[in-house]
Amino acid sequence: MDTQMLKLLHRRKATRAISERPVEAEKVEAIFEAARLSASCANNQPWRFLVLDGDDPEALSRGREALSGGNYWAKTAPLLIFGYSKPDLDCQIAGTREYYLFDLGMAVQNILLQATELDLVARPMAGFSPGKVRAAFGLTDEFEVLVAIAIGYEGDLSTLSEKHQQVSQSPRQRKAMEEIVGFNAPVGHVQE
Ligand SMILES: Cc1cc2nc3c(=O)[nH]c(=O)nc-3n(C[C@H](O)[C@H](O)[C@H](O)COP(=O)(O)O)c2cc1C
Q1: What CATH number is given for 13-167 in this structure?
Q2: How much distance in Å is there from the Cα of 14 to the middle of ligand 1?
């Protein structure tokens, strides 16, 4: 079945080529409204976002300095976001099931999808230093800075390394449905 949602999800394939063209304020607002509307445990809404853009080039460059070398392509994106949270902002069930990172991730997915619908590229990144982000912006250690997201209009593939140009143009790799979904029985290791 072909659905609007599946079309959007197919479009989301994240290239690394992002142009320097600024993103309009109303698009940025829609992106964070999408995050705000995300589901969360007991409606705790534990996600927090540090948004860096051209309005404060100095702050944006401090954020860019926290990115790892492999994420060179994100250092010219007009919008750089860091998503962070901490355990006591969300449900902590039976001492082990903590939901703050799960819920942050759900809000990040909304950001990616809303950006895609607005014809933007949005690529999440683990390749950055949370310590550098905390130090550069005065965030206390209790916060887990989990993800960076580069957002902007699609740029020129020639700005990327050969390897990244190739990956950007190759078909998406995904596990087969039966590897990840079990109907009426679990997939993966089960107890004897
Ligand atoms: C938590 C997380 C961390 C990621 N870190 C990086 C990163 O540091 N650099 C990068 O180029 N892509 C990063 N990605 C993007 C993934 O490589 C990409 O989503 C994956 O290869 C699937 O490709 P697609 O998003 O185009 O479907 C990250 C994605 C996620 C969800």
Answers
A1: 3.40.109.10
A2: 8
